[in-house]
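User: Here's a chain of 84 residues. Predict its fold as tokens.
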Amino acid sequence: MVYIASWEEFVERSIQLFRADPQSSRYVMKYRHCDGKLVLKVTDNRECLKFKTDQAQDVKKMEKLNNIFFTLMARGPDGKTQFS
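Assistant: Prediction complete.
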């Protein structure tokens, strides 16, 4: 479990991971108020991608990623997204 430093790399690799195995992929968000940190994790039980931030502006990026995952879940892994 390595944290990915770049947001763009995290998004691209997360989408690839989900498309490779949508049935076993999970997307988890964890916020620790005492630290003020948000951790996003995408895993398929073989590979784990994590991104950590303490910046408030990254919340908008997280909302966009949520919408991408909602689109992929609704339309299937071959559905078009803005990052495709």
